[in-house]
Each structure stands twice: as structure tokens, then as C-alpha cells.
């Protein structure tokens, strides 16, 4: 795959947080390049010199001519700063860059924020980055990290807001500017800044835009990071440069070059590259709480029924009425009105709603929202699964979430999101996922195709899936299923990957007949739970730390599925459930080696 294709995968998967590092090229031509700024300061010095008397003017002009011959532009800024004097130097730079307060924002800045990054490190002192942050899809106001404050923001990636970092200063704080050699030396010897960058490079994917390969302001910190044995592979530089110097810098730094062409001085192709990244950023629309209601309600109630009269009806009639009312209320587009009416509805019919959870396999009393319950086949911490028969005689699985959490907002949100996720992957035709048929709000129920197989939580204790070829087959299929779900336009994550949710059809046949089927997309609600049975459930060890802690970033981060995938593999190899945060213990690697060595046919 090309560098741009790999970068698209980064934006699609969000396995790591993404941070942009931008330079003067991003604000061009609205703002001057560094060389252009130097030339404008030279012009300012000439104007100032012209006001001086003959001998003094001649001396100052000679000094300016000597400065122009200096090869190091950082030293040139040092000298022109001294030549102009502090006040004139600051005033001129402020005059130039203050225009960014009202000028149209360059489109590249807006696209970058539209990509929903975790943050932007900008070497520019203009206001474009700050103003463009209004384009964040979340509408969040970024945390501002000034040049002298990096020590206070080592944990910025754990925040629920993006950040803007100004290592070269902000227009309103001249003392923080980094233009001169003295400024640069101060910045490169700032241990807190280097340590902060080390965290960013270790945790995030960094994308350089509008910077040059020879810029010591970037190369200097990178050299210091490399010296600390922090690998820099997996980062990207979007640039029009394809020369040897650029290639050597990228190779030495471990950075991948994403090349674009400049035509007649136009960087329009840069916008095309950034827009192509925007095209693969997955929509979070499916994350929004959408109503869940039966597609075909068997029964019609033209008039409202009082709670007292509803109690006279059968449990099945109660379910039909309650779901028809829930559907009517949840179709209201006025969010506040809908939430208010729905809360009142739940309170009004509380007894009937509790009755709706009644399930029986007695042939004379086994009707449940249009299906006939045959038997209970599984019971978990969050719900029960029943084998049932539809009206047309097909076998289905009916999963009913338990009523222990009735009334909890997050419980219903998780259920609705999970039902919607399963509906999406079914509608998209993703193979290897249990097919969604229907769902009911009351009680929270999902109807799915029947899977005639066994879960890994059943097979592993029975000494199945022990050979390496079997393990590789199962997890290869599982990886393909997850990958397809992550790459959907809706970017569906599972978020509850564990042995009980992975079944194998044909598991008693030859390995060629095995078919992995994934169940229960996001149907469990663990976040911030204080329920004893949940916190001590084996399922907890399969959740990524950010899921248990309620991190906002985990909502759209495919790494949570990678974590569940890895811990499930650990279980299959070793036969033991992982405990929460086991991967952080000193004995973790030894535990992994022990689990792997217990498998057969290892070489």
C-alpha cells in the first residue's frame, strides 16, 4: 500500500489518536513564509535606517548587509532583532500577523479540524489554527497550550477535548515567540517540551503539513526524541517535495512521505489530499441514540389504554401496546419533548412494563412479540437468550436484556446503539456477523438469526480450538469480520469482544467447515458501573481500560476491539480469563509465554 493509503487507514481505524504538526506553509500565502517575514523585517530596518544621519545610517546599512550574508536564518533573526530594537521588532511582527484575526481562514486549516484530530501542534503564531478549530465536528473548544506551559499538560491526551499547542509562541505573547537563534536554543533545551513531544510521538500518529525537511525547529526535537530510543515509525509528512534531502530526512526520522504536486505555485492538490482523508473519516451518526421499535406490530390500539385497563390484558397484548406507544413517542423529532414524554410513559406504565419481561416456554403461554419461545439457551450478566420459532416456522434467537437496570439512561442507550450497530452490519451484508431481524424497546429485545454453533467460552473448556491451525483459522476469520465492520461508512465497532460473543458454526466438522460468527455488538453497558456482579464478571477483563473508565476517545477508537481481540486470543491459548489491566502487570509477558507454550504443535 502507498503512504496515502496507509494514512487513510489511520483515519478510518483511529487505532491511535491523530495529531497534526503544521508549519508556515499551511498559512501561505495569507501569511508570510519565514523567509518572507525575514525580508519584511529587512525592509523595516532599511526604512528605519533611512531616517538616521549619514555616518550612523552608513554603519547600520553595513550591519544589515552583513546580516543578509549570514547563512543561518535563525542567526539572521537574532541580528535583525538587535538592529531594529525590541519594540520595533515586536511591533512589525504583530502588524503582519494580526491580520489573521479577520482574514479568510485558509481552507487547509478548516479541513484539518474537520478531520477531528486529537490536537494540532502549530509552529505559526497567527490566529488561523485557533479560529479554524470551530470546524471541529464535536464543537469542543480546544485546550490552549502555550510555549511555556508544556509541563502542565503531560496528560492532555486523556482529556475529553482536543488541544492546540504553540511551541513557537502565540501572537499575543511576544516573549514566547521562537524566531531567533536564542529563542530556538531556549525551546530545544526545554526539557518539559521534549518530554511532552515524546508522549505525543509514542501515543499518537503525527501528520506533518506545511513544514520543511531542513527545519531545525522540527528536526531538533525529533533528534532528541530518537536519542531517547523512542521509535518514530508510523508518522506521516504531507509535502510537495520529492528531492533527496526530503527523502533522507524522512528515512532517518522514520516518517512516511505523502507526496502531492504543486502546479504554477498552487497547492490545490494539498486540499485534495486532505479532503481524501475527510472522505474516509467515519460518520458518528450511528452513535446517536436512535429509537428501537418493532418493524411489524401485530395489533392496533386506536385509543390510549389506562394502566388499570392494561393490566386486564395478556402479557403479549401488553407488550404490543407498550411498543406501539413507545414507537409513537420516539418518532417525535423534538428531543426535549420526546424525552419528557417517554419518561412520563415509563413511569405511568411501570407495572405493565415489568410484566413485559415475563417469558415462558409453556406451549400454552409462550408467545413473545410474535414469536413462540421454545427454550432458554443461554444466560449472561446482561441478558438471556431463547430459542424461538417465527410465524413462518423459522428458528430464531431472541435476546432479552435483564430488567435489573430498567430506568438507567445509559442502559437503554447502549441497547439502542447495539441494536442499530447490528442492523447496520446486517443491512451492509457483512458475513460472519449474526443477522439482525427485528428489535423491541419493551422489554429491550433483539431478534436474530439462529446460529447453530458453539461459543469459544464453551469450546475452550471442552478442549476444542487447541491446535495452532485451528487458532489461526478462527482469529483470521474474526479479524476479517472486524476489519469489514470498521471500514463501513458508519464505522461500526463491536466494543464487547469476548469468548461468549464469538461462535463457531460447524465446529464438530473439519476445520474447512468452521465459520466464525460474531454476536452482540455493544449490547452490554459496563461504563462507570458499580454493580457488583458486573464489576466482578469475567467479561470485565476483555474491556480496554478506556472503556471501563468512560473515556470519550474510546467511543470511536477501533483499538478497543483490538484489545478485546488480543485478550480473547490470550484466553483461547491459555484457557483463563484475563483480569482487568492484567497487561500492565510485571508478570504479563510471562503469562502470555506460558499461555502460548501450552498450545500444541508449537515450533
Report on the architecture of this protein.
The chain is an alpha/beta fold. Helices cover 42% and strands 13% of the residues. The protein folds into 4 domains: 3-30 and 105-285, Rossmann fold (3-Layer(aba) Sandwich), CATH 3.40.50.1220; 34-99; 307-356; 367-598, Transferase(Phosphotransferase), domain 1 (Orthogonal Bundle), CATH 1.10.510. It is built from 23 helices and 16 strands. A hairpin with a 5-residue loop joins strand 10 and strand 11 (395-401). Helix 19 packs antiparallel against helix 22 (559-574). It is elongated. Pfam families: Pkinase, SIR2_2. It comes from Sphaerotilus sulfidivorans.
How many angstroms separate the termini? 31 Å
Helix content: 40-55%
Average pLDDT metric: 86
Name given to the CATH architecture of the largest domain: Orthogonal Bundle
Low-pLDDT residue intervals, each spanning 5 or more residues:
525-535
Query: What is the name of the CATH topology of the largest domain?
Result: Transferase(Phosphotransferase), domain 1
Give the number of helices. Answer: 23
Give the SSE layout.
Elements lengths: L2 H11 L3 E6 L11 H17 L3 H15 L4 H12 L1 H12 L9 H8 L4 E4 L5 H5 L10 E3 L17 E3 L15 H8 L2 H13 E6 L6 H12 L7 E5 L4 H10 L1 E5 L8 H13 L26 H4 L4 H16 L4 H14 L1 H6 L11 E2 L2 E9 L3 E7 L5 E7 L7 H19 L8 E5 L4 E5 L3 E3 H4 L8 H19 L15 E4 L9 E4 L13 H4 L9 H5 L9 H16 L13 H10 L6
Parallel strand pairs: 1-2, 1-5, 2-4, 3-4, 5-6, 6-7
Antiparallel strand pairs: 8-9, 9-10, 10-11, 11-13, 12-13, 14-15, 15-16
Amino acid at each position: 500500500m502507498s503512504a496515502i493509503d496507509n494514512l487513510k487507514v489511520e483515519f478510518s481505524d483511529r487505532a491511535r489518536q491523530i495529531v497534526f504538526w503544521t508549519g508556515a506553509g499551511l498559512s501561505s500565502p495569507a501569511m508570510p513564509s519565514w523567509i518572507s517575514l525575514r525580508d519584511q523585517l529587512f525592509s523595516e530596518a532599511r526604512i528605519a535606517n533611512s531616517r538616521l544621519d549619514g555616518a550612523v545610517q552608513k554603519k547600520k546599512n553595513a550591519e544589515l548587509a552583513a546580516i543578509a550574508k549570514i547563512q543561518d536564518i535563525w542567526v539572521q533573526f537574532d541580528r535583525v532583532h538587535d538592529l531594529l530594537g525590541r519594540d520595533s521588532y515586536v511591533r512589525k511582527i504583530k502588524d503582519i500577523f494580526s491580520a489573521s484575526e479577520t482574514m479568510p481562514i485558509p481552507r487547509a486549516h478548516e479541513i484539518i479540524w474537520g478531520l477531528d484530530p486529537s490536537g494540532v501542534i502549530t509552529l505559526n503564531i497567527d490566529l488561523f489554527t485557533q479560529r479554524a478549530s470551530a470546524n471541529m465536528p464535536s464543537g469542543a473548544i480546544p485546550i490552549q497550550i502555550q510555549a511555556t506551559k508544556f509541563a502542565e499538560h503531560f496528560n492532555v491526551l486523556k482529556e475529553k477535548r482536543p488541544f492546540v499547542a504553540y511551541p513557537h509562541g502565540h501572537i499575543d505573547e511576544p516573549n514566547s515567540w521562537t524566531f531567533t537563534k536564542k529563542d530556538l536554543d531556549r525551546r530545544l533545551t526545554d526539557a518539559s517540551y521534549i518530554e511532552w513531544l515524546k508522549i505525543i510521538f509514542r501515543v499518537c500518529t503525527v501528520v506533518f503539513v506545511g513544514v520543511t525537511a531542513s527545519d531545525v525547529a522540527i528536526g531538533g526535537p525529533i533528534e532528541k526524541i530518537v536519542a531517547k530510543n523512542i521509535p518514530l515509525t508510523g508518522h506521516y509528512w504531507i509535502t510537495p517535495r520529492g528531492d533527496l534531502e526530503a527523502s533522507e530526512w524522512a528515512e532517518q526520522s522514520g516518517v512516511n512521505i505523502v507526496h502531492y504536486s504543486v502546479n504554477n505555485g498552487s497547492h490545490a492538490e494539498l486540499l485534495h489530499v486532505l479532503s481524501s482523508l475527510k472522505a474516509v473519516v467515519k460518520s458518528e451518526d450511528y452513535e446517536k441514540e436512535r429509537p428501537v421499535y418493532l418493524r411489524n406490530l401485530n395489533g392496533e390500539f386506536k385509543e390510549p389504554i389506562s394502566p388499570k385497563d392494561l393490566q386486564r390484558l395478556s402479557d403479549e397484548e401488553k407488550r404490543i401496546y407498550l411498543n406501539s406507544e413507545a414507537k409513537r413517542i420516539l418518532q417525535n423529532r423534538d428531543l426535549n419533548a420526546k424525552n419528557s414524554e417517554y419518561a412520563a410513559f415509563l413511569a405511568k406504565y411501570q407495572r405493565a412494563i415489568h410484566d413485559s419481561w415475563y417469558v415462558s416456554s409453556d406451549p400454552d403461554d409462550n408467545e413473545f412479540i410474535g414469536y413462540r419461545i421454545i427454550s432458554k439457551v443461554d444466560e449472561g450478566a446482561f441478558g438471556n437468550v431463547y430459542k424461538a420459532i417465527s410465524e413462518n416456522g423459522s428458528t430464531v434467537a431472541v435476546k432479552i436484556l435483564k430488567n435489573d437496570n430498567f430506568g438507567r439512561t445509559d442502559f437503554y442507550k447502549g441497547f439502542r446503539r447495539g441494536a442499530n450497530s447490528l442492523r447496520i452490519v446486517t443491512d451492509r451484508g457483512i458475513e460472519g456477523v449474526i443477522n439482525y431481524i427485528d428489535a423491541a424497546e419493551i422489554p429491550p429485545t433483539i431478534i436474530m438469526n439462529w446460529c447453530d454453533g458453539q461459543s469459544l467460552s464453551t469450546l475452550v473448556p471442552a478442549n476444542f480450538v487447541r491446535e495452532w491451525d485451528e487458532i489461526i483459522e478462527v482469529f483470521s476469520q474474526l479479524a476479517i469480520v472486524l476489519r469489514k465492520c470498521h471500514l463501513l461508512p458508519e464505522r461500526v465497532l463491536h466494543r464487547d469482544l469476548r469468548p461468549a460473543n464469538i461462535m463457531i458454526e460447524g465446529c464438530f466438522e473439519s476445520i474447512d467447515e468452521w465459520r466464525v460468527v460474531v454476536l452482540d455488538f455493544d449490547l452490554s453497558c459496563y461504563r462507570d458501573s458499580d454493580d457488583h456482579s458486573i464489576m466482578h464478571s469475567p467479561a470485565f477483563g476483555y474491556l480496554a481500560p478506556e472503556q471501563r473508565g468512560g473515556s470519550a476517545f474510546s467511543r470511536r477508537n477501533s483499538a478497543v476491539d483490538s484489545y478485546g481481540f488480543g485478550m480473547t486470543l490470550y484466553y483461547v491459548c491459555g484457557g483463563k480469563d484475563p483480569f482487568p489491566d492484567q497487561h500492565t502487570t510485571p508478570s504479563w509477558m510471562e503469562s502470555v509465554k506460558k499461555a502460548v507454550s501450552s498450545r500444541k504443535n508449537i515450533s
